[in-house]
Amino acid sequence: MLLIEADGKMLFAEHGIEVPAGVVVTDRVPPLPGDGPWMVKAQVPVSGRGKAGGIVRCGTRAEVEAAVAGMLDGRLNGHRIDACLVEAVAIGQERYLSVMVDPANYGLRVLYSAQGGVEIEQSSSARGSLCPPHPGAVAEALAELVSDEPDLWRDQIAAIGKTLGGVLLTHELALAEVNPLFVSASGCIAGDAKVVIDLNAIGRQPRIAAMVAARPALYVDAGRKIAEGFDYVELDPQGEIGLVTTGAGLSMMLIDELTARGARPLNFCDIRTGQMRGSPARLIRVLEWITARASLKAVLVNIFAGITDLAEFAGLLAAAIQASPALKVPVVARLVGRNAGEAKRILGTARPGMLVTEDLEEALARIDAIVGAAS
Amino acid sequence: MIGALSRTTPVIVQGITGRMGRSHAALMRSYGTNIVGGTSTRNDIAEAAGVPVFASCNEAVLATGAVASVAMAPPEETWVAVQEALAAGIKLIVTVAEGVPVHDAMRIGRAVRRAGATWVGASTPGLAVPGECKLGFLPDVCLKPGPIGIMSKSGTLSYEVGYRLAREGLGQSIWVGVGGDSVKGVRFADMLPVFFNDPRTKGIVLVGEVGGTEEEECAEVYVRLGRRKPLFALVAGREAKEGIAMGHAGALVHGESGTLAAKTRRLTEAGATVFSSIESLVGHCVRQFRFDRR
Asked: Does domain A1-20+91-228 have CATH number 3.30.470.20?
């Protein structure tokens, strides 16, 4: 998962990498660092914020206030903007520097470019080097990559690279990127911070866990995963179809197929039926989140059970529906696997008229009909 | 190693006395896998799922001659389980746990590479040679011997694809769940030579997801190895939300990296056929292979 820039910078600063003085704004603009100019930056975990209007340069406090007001509560690439980072403008030449896990080689990849500030994928100037997962190896790899830089700042860049490698290994990150890194005679300063954390390591990474816990509104999806032990990601707050599904790949594919048909899925969900252990609690939670959206028109349950006993699942689903008075829209269930027939009987008794089928296409057609009729 | 698996390959289950270990060992045995034993930290149980329980992989391998292991260890204990298996001389290890930390996976990958072994996982239902054996918990209802080689990041999406193909009479030669993590054992590209050299395999189905560059690497190797068999791909996650992992730790899109568009373009340029729905992939495979059986 991507940290917001402000948290990435906080992490870098804690390890001695210089970052611009800044404040995170979620409501009214507090006193600002320095006399300006400032950058106002939307704190959402997406790339290309500049192009999408998520980064604005301001000369006066009034401009900062206007920029913040224009961003907060807006949306950028599917994410709601709940916070802005306002910071002093940094100056210098722009460089690109990153250290990341290289999955195919079980090592680290160090990337460096003398042309920073642009999307690195579009830059032909980036040079990379593979190395084993040790800070010393990162420093060695980087020394070669920055050999053309002037004496004035070459060693400083190398030191920052070594620190980034150390941060990545210490906190078990997948990526630590600075783009741009401002370099000048007076020093190097990280103009941006892109940090990809590993949620699977969060149990043994207290600093990262604290950062995620400190901003529940910004890390909603991650917070849910940590608290509940399964995945639920809201995709479209105006979505019409709530999904109760298991399996990440199948859930994603279902969302793609529904969207291609012109439908509006509300959420992604990997509920992990194998971990429910006889309790409808997870189903009740998901129904609670789904029914919180007024735009909801139907709920689609899709379970391909390799191992799970569907009769048991159907009992839990019936109990969860019973325990969810806010659920007022039709539920369609597509169930395949062990005891599908018995599951159909149980749900048919608990909720007469509910479509329970083994055929995904039939379930999707029913969803189309419900949403069409409701519109 | 994967291509040579059969009903005679001796396999152990690490963690066989746990809830998962016991039930999946029994299910694997009933499918036909030659489960010869298991390991457990409990010294009060001599037998589970009808096979002997050993205190360590070393003891199990010495007593049974096992060459493959299915590790039913929790994610944070997977690295230790793999070390134990490698030290015992295991040549193929399947780790099913979901949630293995990325930096543990790097350690596992480096150790497996040093040992010259093969690792499948993590976050996988395992693999199968239908009609011979399965290592893990791919559902029997989807398994059927046939001409299609399946490799998939997602368990459930591959079940759906395998089940619909099997229902249409098209079974599988070798089925490998490479798993949903970014740092993993066998990757899509590693499976191409296996499928190319396997005489049972007539076509390859790749079930991918957004995130990472595995599909792109596979496209490159597919061209380099001469496109010896047709490659059909289904990639999930067009509507994935940027910056957050979609269930699988590896399914993370940020910027241009890992997008469906990039993967589709690279696979298509390499000569693979990329589908946007399960139904269209299944329909195409059926048209191409069902009337071509000999």
From this structure: yes
Q: Is the dihedral of CA B243, A299, A254, A199 positive or negative?
A: positive
Tell me the pLDDT band of A308, cut-offs 50, 70 and 90: confident
Give the mean pLDDT of A29-46. 95
Q: Does domain A229-374 have CATH number 3.40.50.261?
A: yes
- For the segment B93-111, the average pLDDT, to the nearest whole number, is 97
| CATH code linked to domain A22-88 | 3.30.1490.20
Cα of A151 to nearest chain B Cα, Å: 33
The average confidence (pLDDT) of chain A is 93
The Cα B169–Cα A70 span in angstroms is: 58
**Residue of A359 and A48 predicted with greater confidence:** A359
State whether B103 and B146 are in the same domain: no
Q: Does the annotation mark B248 as catalytic?
A: yes
pLDDT of A185-243, one tens digit each? 989 999 999 999 999 999 999 999 999 999 998 998 899 888 888 999 999 999 999 99
Chain A residue numbers touching B82 (CB-CB < 8 A): none
Which domain does B220 fall in, by range? 139-292
Domain identity same for B35 and B84: yes
Q: What is the CATH number of the domain that holds B249?
A: 3.40.50.261
CA distance B27 to chain A (A): 10
CATH number of the domain residue B19 falls in? 3.40.50.720
ipTM of the complex: 0.92
Domain annotation covers residue B34: yes
Using an 8 Å CB-CB cutoff, list chain B residues near A121.
255-257
